[in-house]
Specification:
With 197 residues, the protein is mostly helical. It contains 9 helices and no strands. It folds into 2 domains: 79 residues, no CATH class; 76 residues, no CATH class. The relative contact order is 0.06.
Length: 197
Amino acid sequence: MIKLVPNIEKDLLFQKIVDKLGWLFEYKSDLERWSLMVKMTRTLEIQLKHFGLNKESLATFENTVSSFTDTSLKDFKQNIVNYLVKETSKISSKDTFLATTLRATSPSGTFPSTDVLESLFGKYKNFSARSPLNQINQLLFTIVLSTTNLTANFLKEALETIRFVDVENWANQIFGSSALSKRKTLFSASVDDIEFV
């Protein structure tokens, strides 16, 4: 604080701080407790973000917050424990879920946070917004492209081994006809093909 106002005496600066913020002293114990509550919830938030929700979540959380000795937080901590017990009771012993209940799997045993998924869908939305026919179909491939390092060798191998017609057939089988192809079919029909009732 002295660095911000170097030309002021320490005692005078301290007195000015007390004059402005002295009223906070009467809330000292409350502020310490609230700070611990925030620390406890942030601890759980970070844990769930990085490791997901699984059968070990409760034990991990309790181990992490075991150093929090404030007995006034007993009820608050119990609410968090109840949440973890309720949510993990729905999960089999082998599974791990993102805190948003989306299933997360990874060969390395770690689990992606929702930030990665949110970022991918953000990129998808940004890309699909430029499409005249905004629908989830082949544009879904842009999510895969966002996670792939597109090197010259990778592209060469893909172009040499995968035929466009095979991708198109697969996409039609999975997604069905696109809105554009339905439009073309509708507007290419001759007047004789239209039945009036």
